[in-house]
Amino acid sequence: MNSDWSPPLVGHSPVMIRQRSGVVLNTGSISGVAGIATQGAYGPTKGAVHQLTRQMAVEWAPHGVRVNVVNPGTIDTPLSRDNMTPQSIADREARIPLGRLAHPGEVADLIAFLASPAASFITAQDIHCDGGLSQNLMAQKFYANA
Length: 146
Known about the structure:
single chain, alpha/beta, Rossmann fold, 3-stranded parallel sheet, 43% helix, 12% strand
């Protein structure tokens, strides 16, 4: 047996491995970390993205590559506005502790930070950018009949 053999890395990136640095940022969802009604197919697939992120992070860390997953909340975009009624937007905003949808630049700023040297010790993390919605889901369900 060849003593130089090691198991292949998940999602192997020869360039990042060779340069011994790099950042991978995956896009997840709170549906990937919490069971949410009507998310039967979407949630488990996002859960796989979360696990893939953790796996890649531990396998690629010795090669200087960081891997994280960003979980954006509802973003105020033309597409969101086209697919939501004014009432559904108001209902969503009422469930978000910060009381509004995210601006696209807020998620972009988080991504830019995570890709920067300022985040050089952050890896294997699920980072929510959802105005606190993910922390408010249980309270909404628990107090639904109040």
